[in-house]
Specification:
about 250 residues; single chain; globular; mainly alpha
């Protein structure tokens, strides 16, 4: 039954009108970025030679991945917001009748569907890289080979980064059926998150100036904890909202 719930979530995500609109806008933006980047490279404004051990192909790949990641971090969360808010508005959980009982099971199926949705869309990065490396296909097996990174690691990082943002907007969207409200709240949370990261960066810098040197692992743990705050707070708030009923009425 859980697999059926995940399949329903995937269908809703792929058939939502927001994906069609945002997908078209995203494709236009990606094409625009590609044209601008090629133009800047031809003018010499972007030069791979200033970067050590970076080939022109790798440099173009890095620019493409950066542009692709930016667009995906906008397209996917917007689609998640509209899909989740539409779900709240139409009360589809009730319409499924006996298929769903536990709210926790419902949320986990939706999160799983969102993860698979992101993983599928992120596969689009490979055709773009193929076009970049088409004249030198042997080098496509790795991008930053000198640093030990490869395409699979890059794909994993892109997927997890978008998944984190999508989880935040998903949890926010569970509190309202108004997509615009959810988007506004998501932007506010993003701003607070950036402020928090800047604040922690300043604290670490001040600590270094005071002679207190934190290891890289300690800094990473602090940042991970900071990133986990929105997820934990929103999850607890959602649990409190559902505390009086563990079944959908």
């Amino acid at each position: 039954m859980f697999g059926n719930l995940v399949q329903i979530e995937l269908i809703r995500l792929f058939r939502n009108k927001a994906l069609k609109i945002s997908g078209i806008v995203g494709a236009i933006m990606l094409l625009f970025f590609a044209v601008v980047e090629d133009y800047l490279i031809s003018l010499g404004a972007l030069d791979a030679e200033v970067l050590n051990d970076i080939t022109p192909y790798t440099f173009k790949a890095i620019l493409f991945i950066s542009s692709f990641s930016l667009i995906m971090s906008l397209v996917v969360p917007v689609n998640v917001v509209y899909t989740t808010c539409d779900y709240q508005r139409s009360r589809l959980a009730v319409n499924i009748e006996g298929a769903i009982r536990s709210r926790f099971k419902l949320c986990m199926s939706e999160v799983t569907g969102i993860f698979l949705f992101i993983a599928i869309l992120e596969l689009l990065v490979f055709p773009g890289l193929f076009l970049i490396y088409i004249t030198e296909p042997v080098t496509i097996v790795s991008i930053w080979h000198n640093d030990g990174y490869n395409l699979l690691e890059t794909y994993g990082v892109l997927t997890l980064a978008v998944l984190y943002t999508s989880l935040v907007v998903y949890l926010i969207s569970k509190f309202t059926s108004k997509a615009l409200y959810a988007i506004a709240l998501s932007i506010a949370v993003s701003i607070l998150g950036m402020v928090g990261v800047i604040f922690m960066t300043v604290l670490v810098s001040k600590a270094g100036e005071s002679g207190i040197v934190l290891s890289s692992n300690a800094v990473d743990i602090i940042m991970y904890m900071l990133l986990a705050v929105p997820i934990l707070v929103l999850s607890l708030a959602l649990a409190v909202r559902y505390r009086r009923a563990d079944r959908i009425s």
